[in-house]
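Input.
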Amino acid sequence: MDARVQRRRGCSVDAKKKAKEILVAIVREAGGSFNGKTRLYKAFYVAHLFHFRDNGAVLSDYPIIRMPRGPAVDSGDRLLAELCTEGVLRAGTRPNGPYTEEVFTVAGESGTLLPAEIQSIRRAVDWIGERSARELSEWTHEFSNTWVDTPDGCRMNIYADLLGETEYADMKRRHIQVGEMVHAVFR
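Output.
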Protein backbone atom coordinates (compact mmCIF):
# COMPACT_ATOMS: atom_id res chain seq x y z
CA MET A 1 0.00 0.00 0.00
CA ASP A 2 1.56 3.30 -0.98
CA ALA A 3 1.74 6.29 1.38
CA ARG A 4 -1.24 8.06 -0.27
CA VAL A 5 -3.54 5.08 0.29
CA GLN A 6 -2.29 4.67 3.86
CA ARG A 7 -3.03 8.33 4.67
CA ARG A 8 -6.47 8.07 3.07
CA ARG A 9 -7.27 5.07 5.31
CA GLY A 10 -5.96 6.91 8.36
CA CYS A 11 -2.67 5.04 8.55
CA SER A 12 0.78 6.60 8.28
CA VAL A 13 3.95 4.82 7.21
CA ASP A 14 5.12 5.14 10.83
CA ALA A 15 1.89 3.52 12.07
CA LYS A 16 2.45 0.59 9.72
CA LYS A 17 6.03 0.18 10.96
CA LYS A 18 4.84 0.27 14.58
CA ALA A 19 2.09 -2.29 13.86
CA LYS A 20 4.70 -4.63 12.40
CA GLU A 21 6.91 -4.16 15.47
CA ILE A 22 3.94 -5.01 17.71
CA LEU A 23 3.12 -8.17 15.74
CA VAL A 24 6.73 -9.35 16.04
CA ALA A 25 6.79 -8.49 19.76
CA ILE A 26 3.63 -10.56 20.30
CA VAL A 27 5.30 -13.59 18.75
CA ARG A 28 8.51 -12.94 20.70
CA GLU A 29 6.66 -12.52 24.03
CA ALA A 30 4.86 -15.81 23.39
CA GLY A 31 8.24 -17.53 23.47
CA GLY A 32 9.18 -16.99 19.83
CA SER A 33 6.26 -18.90 18.33
CA PHE A 34 2.57 -18.04 18.10
CA ASN A 35 -0.24 -20.30 16.86
CA GLY A 36 -3.13 -18.92 14.82
CA LYS A 37 -3.60 -15.72 12.88
CA THR A 38 -6.98 -14.95 14.50
CA ARG A 39 -5.37 -15.35 17.93
CA LEU A 40 -2.50 -13.07 16.84
CA TYR A 41 -4.98 -10.39 15.76
CA LYS A 42 -6.81 -10.66 19.09
CA ALA A 43 -3.51 -10.26 20.96
CA PHE A 44 -2.82 -7.09 18.92
CA TYR A 45 -6.25 -5.70 19.90
CA VAL A 46 -5.94 -6.66 23.58
CA ALA A 47 -2.40 -5.19 23.82
CA HIS A 48 -3.83 -1.85 22.69
CA LEU A 49 -6.55 -2.01 25.35
CA PHE A 50 -4.11 -2.94 28.14
CA HIS A 51 -1.70 -0.22 27.09
CA PHE A 52 -4.35 2.49 27.06
CA ARG A 53 -5.93 1.35 30.32
CA ASP A 54 -2.63 1.02 32.18
CA ASN A 55 -0.63 3.88 30.66
CA GLY A 56 -3.21 6.35 29.37
CA ALA A 57 -1.45 6.20 26.00
CA VAL A 58 -2.15 4.75 22.59
CA LEU A 59 0.06 1.76 21.68
CA SER A 60 -0.26 2.54 17.97
CA ASP A 61 -2.68 4.35 15.70
CA TYR A 62 -2.76 1.49 13.21
CA PRO A 63 -6.37 0.63 12.29
CA ILE A 64 -8.12 -2.24 13.99
CA ILE A 65 -11.14 -3.20 11.95
CA ARG A 66 -14.29 -5.20 12.53
CA MET A 67 -14.36 -8.63 10.99
CA PRO A 68 -17.09 -11.24 11.45
CA ARG A 69 -15.04 -13.09 14.11
CA GLY A 70 -13.95 -9.97 15.97
CA PRO A 71 -11.37 -7.19 15.83
CA ALA A 72 -8.57 -7.69 13.30
CA VAL A 73 -5.44 -5.91 12.16
CA ASP A 74 -6.28 -3.92 9.02
CA SER A 75 -4.43 -5.50 6.06
CA GLY A 76 -2.94 -7.95 8.56
CA ASP A 77 -2.19 -10.54 5.87
CA ARG A 78 -0.12 -7.97 4.01
CA LEU A 79 1.81 -6.93 7.13
CA LEU A 80 2.57 -10.55 8.00
CA ALA A 81 3.67 -11.30 4.43
CA GLU A 82 5.99 -8.27 4.51
CA LEU A 83 7.49 -9.41 7.82
CA CYS A 84 8.14 -12.84 6.30
CA THR A 85 9.67 -11.31 3.16
CA GLU A 86 11.86 -9.10 5.36
CA GLY A 87 13.06 -12.21 7.22
CA VAL A 88 11.73 -11.03 10.58
CA LEU A 89 8.99 -13.70 10.89
CA ARG A 90 8.51 -17.15 9.43
CA ALA A 91 5.05 -18.53 8.72
CA GLY A 92 4.25 -22.21 8.71
CA THR A 93 1.41 -24.51 9.63
CA ARG A 94 0.74 -27.19 12.20
CA PRO A 95 -2.04 -29.72 12.63
CA ASN A 96 -4.91 -28.74 14.88
CA GLY A 97 -7.17 -31.76 14.99
CA PRO A 98 -8.11 -32.58 11.40
CA TYR A 99 -7.31 -28.99 10.36
CA THR A 100 -4.19 -26.90 10.06
CA GLU A 101 -3.47 -23.53 11.60
CA GLU A 102 -0.82 -20.97 10.88
CA VAL A 103 2.20 -20.71 13.14
CA PHE A 104 4.41 -17.64 13.25
CA THR A 105 7.97 -17.76 14.55
CA VAL A 106 10.50 -15.01 15.12
CA ALA A 107 13.33 -15.23 12.59
CA GLY A 108 15.06 -11.87 13.08
CA GLU A 109 15.22 -8.67 15.04
CA SER A 110 12.72 -5.86 14.62
CA GLY A 111 11.71 -2.75 16.44
CA THR A 112 12.53 -0.59 19.35
CA LEU A 113 9.43 -0.67 21.48
CA LEU A 114 9.45 1.00 24.88
CA PRO A 115 9.44 -1.11 28.07
CA ALA A 116 5.84 -0.05 28.88
CA GLU A 117 4.77 -1.12 25.36
CA ILE A 118 6.46 -4.51 25.77
CA GLN A 119 4.76 -4.89 29.15
CA SER A 120 1.33 -4.28 27.56
CA ILE A 121 2.10 -6.81 24.84
CA ARG A 122 3.28 -9.35 27.43
CA ARG A 123 0.04 -8.85 29.40
CA ALA A 124 -1.99 -9.42 26.22
CA VAL A 125 -0.07 -12.59 25.38
CA ASP A 126 -0.54 -13.86 28.94
CA TRP A 127 -4.25 -13.07 28.81
CA ILE A 128 -4.67 -14.79 25.43
CA GLY A 129 -2.79 -17.81 26.82
CA GLU A 130 -3.98 -21.02 25.23
CA ARG A 131 -7.51 -19.76 24.54
CA SER A 132 -8.81 -20.87 21.17
CA ALA A 133 -9.66 -18.45 18.38
CA ARG A 134 -13.30 -19.40 18.86
CA GLU A 135 -13.25 -18.61 22.58
CA LEU A 136 -11.53 -15.27 21.94
CA SER A 137 -14.06 -14.41 19.24
CA GLU A 138 -16.96 -15.23 21.56
CA TRP A 139 -15.39 -13.02 24.23
CA THR A 140 -15.18 -10.15 21.73
CA HIS A 141 -18.79 -10.65 20.69
CA GLU A 142 -19.88 -10.46 24.31
CA PHE A 143 -17.71 -7.61 25.63
CA SER A 144 -16.79 -5.34 22.72
CA ASN A 145 -19.52 -2.75 22.25
CA THR A 146 -17.63 -1.22 19.35
CA TRP A 147 -17.43 -4.60 17.58
CA VAL A 148 -21.22 -4.90 17.91
CA ASP A 149 -21.80 -1.35 16.62
CA THR A 150 -19.24 -1.27 13.78
CA PRO A 151 -19.98 -2.60 10.27
CA ASP A 152 -17.69 -5.31 8.85
CA GLY A 153 -14.49 -3.93 7.37
CA CYS A 154 -14.74 -0.58 9.16
CA ARG A 155 -12.30 0.85 11.68
CA MET A 156 -13.32 0.29 15.29
CA ASN A 157 -13.09 2.88 18.05
CA ILE A 158 -11.50 0.26 20.30
CA TYR A 159 -10.86 2.57 23.24
CA ALA A 160 -14.60 2.96 23.76
CA ASP A 161 -14.51 -0.74 24.73
CA LEU A 162 -12.87 0.34 27.98
CA LEU A 163 -16.02 2.23 28.99
CA GLY A 164 -18.62 0.63 31.20
CA GLU A 165 -21.97 -0.25 29.63
CA THR A 166 -23.70 2.86 31.02
CA GLU A 167 -20.86 5.17 29.91
CA TYR A 168 -20.86 3.59 26.46
CA ALA A 169 -24.65 3.95 26.12
CA ASP A 170 -24.40 7.63 27.16
CA MET A 171 -21.62 8.26 24.64
CA LYS A 172 -23.60 6.56 21.89
CA ARG A 173 -26.74 8.56 22.75
CA ARG A 174 -24.75 11.85 22.65
CA HIS A 175 -23.32 10.95 19.23
CA ILE A 176 -26.77 10.15 17.89
CA GLN A 177 -28.10 13.49 19.19
CA VAL A 178 -25.20 15.40 17.60
CA GLY A 179 -25.76 13.55 14.33
CA GLU A 180 -29.44 14.46 14.37
CA MET A 181 -28.60 18.13 14.99
CA VAL A 182 -26.09 18.17 12.12
CA HIS A 183 -28.58 16.45 9.84
CA ALA A 184 -31.26 19.03 10.74
CA VAL A 185 -28.90 21.92 9.98
CA PHE A 186 -28.00 20.57 6.53
CA ARG A 187 -31.50 19.58 5.38
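Residues 3-185 form one domain.
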